[in-house]
Design a protein that fits this description.
Radius of gyration of chain A: 27 Å
CATH topology of chain B: Arc Repressor Mutant, subunit A
Strand content of chain B: 5-15%
Number of domains of chain A: 2
Strand order of the largest sheet of chain B: 1-3-2
Number of helices of chain A: 10
Oligomer: heterodimer
Largest sheet of chain B: 3 strands, antiparallel
Strand content of chain A: under 5%
Number of domains of chain B: 1
Number of strands of chain B: 3
Structural class of chain B: alpha+beta
Largest sheet of chain A: none
CATH architecture of chain B: Orthogonal Bundle
Distance between the termini of chain B: 19 Å
CATH class of chain B: Mainly Alpha
Amino acid sequence: MFDLNHEIAEWKQSLGQSETVTRPDLDELESHLRDQIDHLSMSGLSIEEALLVARHRIGDTKRLSGEFAKVNGSAIFRRRLQWMLIGVLAYLLIFDLSHLASLAGTLAAFGIGFHGSASGWIGQGAQFLSVLIGLVVVLVVLRIPGMSRLTASVGGGIGLGLIVIVGSLLLIAARILLPILTIRFVSAQDYGQSAVVQSLSALVYSGIIPILVVTLLVLLRKPSLQQEIGVH
Amino acid sequence: MPLSKDLVAASATPLILSILAEGESYGYAITRRVRELSAGQMEWTDGMLYPVLHRLERQGLIKSVEKISETGRRRRYYHIQSRGKTALDKQQSQWMLVHSVLNQLWENKPCLT
């Protein structure tokens, strides 16, 4: 059964995939398409035929998104910048929280009677675990339908600003408090041994993570135009 | 007769401004008016009209308002602004100049076919 609304929604969605066409643009184009369909069907075409002709007249997705790119350039740049900044925030958050997890893990290990490097390893484990959990949370949040649009639209919102400021203050307080507690309750030698183990984290966070990120960037690269249209 | 890409691009602004100088209008009606006036000879890709309208609005030549149309659909209506009228006057004298030069050349040298 032919469903005009469904067909139009699909057409809109495929056009909307190009980041150069904004939502108000899409609504305006939809109104145009519907006017054209009304007009054509009044002159005797079936709705299906009218849709085909109207879609042809309005132009193909590729050319349209190219034309809109010329006028929406700054909007596209802004949206990309927002995403980059959201990425920076997410990274800082995960990094700070993992550092806290490491400090807290080490301190807890000392507290329940571990010594020296054993506590260091436990702290390391806590840090690694918190990074993994943080990454999973970020990915899950971004996959929730509509969330990507929401996150992009609140970028710079007052609510987000408040959350970030309060969160930062809490993190700073915790990062000052935990070392003070460590110094009070842990002997210098024990602390030294655990710190040596902790420094191994450089291997993961300055070595493995950048390599992983670069690998992801390479994998996410769009196939070149030639591959896309199947030129050999 | 499909117009060359350059000519479509060059004529879009004076066409839109002239149509809006007659009164407020919206995208679909503008494309219909062009089709009507050229007896279907000028073939535009309709969607291309909107980036031009948005550019003209950003330049302050026209202004848009969203309204509910008689069909109950939301529609963006465009109005010409005083800056748009000045721009249209300028465009008009330039196009008339080109027109008159070409006309004189073609009148003196009739078509050979």
